[in-house]
Specification:
Layout lengths: L1 H46 L5 H10 L2 E6 L6 E3 L10 H8 L4 E2 L22 E7 L2 E9 L1 H49 L14 H48 L6 H32 L8 E4 H11 L1 H6 L3 E5 L4 E4 L1 H17 L6 E8 L3 E8 L6 H6 L21 H11 L3 E7 L3 E9 L2
Helix pairs in contact: 4-5, 5-6, 6-11, 7-9, 9-11
The structure holds adenosine-5'-diphosphate (ADP).
The site of adenosine-5'-diphosphate has 21 residues, from α9 and α11.
Length: 450
C-alpha cells in the first residue's frame, strides 16, 4: 500500500512539475515558433497571386496545420481539420486586422494544465496581419496536434497505463516474497515458545531477513543447548543429593540395631556427619550458583586486600597441607582490588583446595600475585597429575569431575570450578590453565583493573 501510495504521489508531483515546465518554458517557446511560421506564411501570401491563396492554404493545412483566413471583416475561411471551438472575440479579429499580432497560445488560460497544449480551440492560435492589395487581412493558425500526436498520444497512454499496472503487480509480488519468510519466522517463534527447538527455517537469503533467520537459528540452537544443560543439571543435582541421602538412610538403619558396640556406633555417626556435611556443602554451592546465575551477587563490591585473603586461606588449610606433606611457597605483594570480597574469597579457596586435593603426597604449591598495567593475576601452581586438553576444556562444566569413581575418596561436588569461573566472569575476568602431565597445573585468575 505504501509503495503504491508513493507511486501515486510521485505521479502527481511529476505531473505538477511538467506542468510548471510547460507553463514557464514550453508555452512561450511554442508561441514564438508558431508566430515565426505564421509570419513567414503571411509574407509568402503577400507575395503571390491572391487567387492562389486558398490553394496555398490548403497545402499548408495538408502538412499539419489548422488555419483560419480572414480576407476581410466578417468573412472567415477555414482550412485543415475543423476547430472544436470556433469562438474568437470579434475584438481580437479586429485587432489583428488592424496590424496587431495575436498571441493566443501564450495567453491561453494559465490554470489549464499541460493539456492546454492540445486544446483544439480557435483562441489557442497565433494571429498575424496580412496586407494584400492595400487591404488588411488576417491569418490565424495552430499546428494540427491531432495529426502530429495522434499515434504518440495512444502510445504514451499505453506506456503510462502499463507502467502503473506492472509496477503494482511487481510491488505485490515483491511484498509477497518479503512477507513469506517473515510468516515462517513468526511460526517458528511460536514453535520455539512451545518448546520445539529443532527448527528448520529453510530461508536461504543474503539480505537482512536472511541474517535474521540465521540469528534466529543460532538462538534456537543455544536455547536447545541451554534446555539440555538445565535437564542435565537437575539430573546431576538430584543424583548428588540422592547419594548421601541413601548412605545416611543405610547408616541410620544400622544405628537402629540394638547390638552395636560403642566403637561401631561412633563410626557410623561419623559417617552420618560426613554425609550431612557433604549435603550441606552441595546445597550451599547450588544456592551460590543460582544467585550468580541470577546476576544477583550476595554482597555489593568493596575494596579489599587480595594478598591478605590468600594468606588467610593458606593459614586456614595448614592442617591439610601438613596431613598431605605438601609444601607451600608464595609471593604475595599487597594488592588492593575493588570487587566482591566474599565471592572472590570463594574463588581462591576453591583453586587452593583443588591444588591440595589433586596434588600428590609430598607435592608443592606455589601461590603468586602478579600485577601489570591492565590486570591483576592470581596464580596457583601445583605439582599434581596435570590435565589433558579435553579435561581442561571440560573442568568448568557443572558437576564435571575427572574420573568420578577414583575421585570418590576426594571430597568434591564438581561445582567448584564452575562457580569460580562464573564469579570471575562477573568481575569481567577469566581463568586460564597451563598444564603438564609431569609437572602439574597452573590456574591463573585474570582480573581486569577498573
Ligand atoms: P571438585 O569439587 O570435584 O573439586 P571442581 O569444579 O573444583 O570440582 O573441579 C572439577 C574437576 O577438575 C575435579 O573433580 C578434578 O578432577 C579436576 N581438577 C580441578 N583442579 C585440579 C587440579 N589442580 N589438578 C588436577 N585436576 C583438577
Amino acid at each position: 500500500m505504501m509503495t503504491i501510495g508513493i507511486m501515486l504521489l510521485s505521479s502527481v508531483f511529476a505531473f505538477m512539475f511538467s506542468n510548471f515546465y510547460y507553463q514557464q518554458k514550453l508555452k512561450p517557446e511554442n508561441d514564438a515558433k508558431n508566430t515565426k511560421i505564421a509570419l513567414e506564411i503571411a509574407t509568402y501570401m503577400e507575395s503571390i497571386e491572391p487567387s492562389m491563396i486558398p490553394q496555398y492554404l490548403e497545402n499548408i493545412a495538408a502538412i499539419g496545420y489548422q488555419l483560419m483566413w480572414v480576407p476581410h471583416k466578417n468573412k472567415r475561411e477555414f482550412f485543415g481539420d475543423p476547430f472544436r471551438d470556433k469562438n474568437l472575440p470579434q475584438v481580437t479579429e479586429e485587432k489583428v486586422l488592424n496590424g496587431e499580432i495575436y498571441h493566443g497560445m501564450l495567453h491561453f488560460p494559465q490554470e489549464t494544465f499541460v493539456t492546454g497544449f492540445f486544446a483544439n480551440e480557435l483562441t489557442n492560435t497565433i494571429g498575424v496581419p496580412i496586407h494584400i492589395a492595400g487591404k488588411n487581412q488576417a491569418l490565424f493558425l495552430q499546428p494540427n496536434i491531432k495529426l502530429l500526436f495522434h499515434e504518440m498520444h495512444y502510445l504514451f497512454t499505453w506506456i503510462l497505463l502499463l507502467t502503473v499496472i506492472l509496477s503494482i503487480l511487481f510491488v505485490l509480488l515483491s511484498t509477497k516474497l518479503l512477507i513469506q519468510p517473515i510468516e515462517r519466522l513468526t511460526e517458528a517463534t511460536k514453535e520455539l515458545s512451545e518448546g520445539k527447538f529443532s527448527i528448520n527455517l529453510a530461508i536461504e537469503r543474503k539480505d537482512e531477513i536472511g541474517k535474521l533467520a540465521q540469528h534466529f537459528t543460532t538462538m534456537a540452537k543455544k536455547l536447545e543447548k541451554l534446555d539440555e544443560m538445565k535437564s542435565e543439571f537437575i539430573e546431576n543435582a538430584s543424583h548428588d543429593i540422592q547419594t548421601p541421602l541413601a548412605t545416611m538412610k543405610g547408616y541410620i538403619k544400622l544405628l537402629q540395631r540394638n547390638n552395636l558396640s560403642c566403637k561401631e556406633r561412633k563410626k557410623y555417626l561419623a559417617i552420618l556427619k560426613r554425609e550431612m556435611k557433604r549435603l550441606s556443602n552441595l546445597t550451599k554451592q547450588l544456592l551460590l550458583l543460582a544467585s550468580i546465575d541470577r546476576n544477583d551477587p550476595p554482597t555489593i563490591p568493596q575494596t579489599f586486600n587480595i594478598s591478605k585473603q590468600l594468606k588467610e586461606i593458606i593459614f586456614h588449610y595448614q592442617w591439610l597441607l601438613n596431613e598431605r606433606s605438601i609444601m607451600v611457597s608464595y609471593t604475595l605483594p599487597e594488592v588492593i582490588y575493588e570487587g566482591n570480597e566474599a565471592l572472590l574469597y570463594n574463588v581462591w579457596e576453591n583453586l587452593f583446595t583443588n591444588a591440595i586435593k589433586y596434588n600428590k603426597e609430598g607435592g608443592t604449591i606455589d601461590v603468586k600475585i602478579l600485577e601489570n598495567k591492565k590486570e591483576i593475576n592470581v596464580q596457583f601452581q601445583d605439582s599434581g597429575r596435570g590435565l589433558s586438553e579435553e579435561e581442561q576444556q571440560r573442568i568448568f562444566e557443572r558437576f564435571y569431575r575427572i574420573d568420578r569413581a577414583r575421585s570418590k575418596n576426594v571430597e568434591g561436588t564438581g561445582l567448584g570450578l564452575a562457580i569460580a569461573s562464573a564469579i570471575v566472569d562477573l568481575h569481567k575476568g577469566f581463568i586460564s590453565i597451563k598444564s603438564d602431565r609431569k609437572k602439574g597445573s597452573t590456574f591463573t585468575v585474570h582480573l581486569p583493573k577498573l
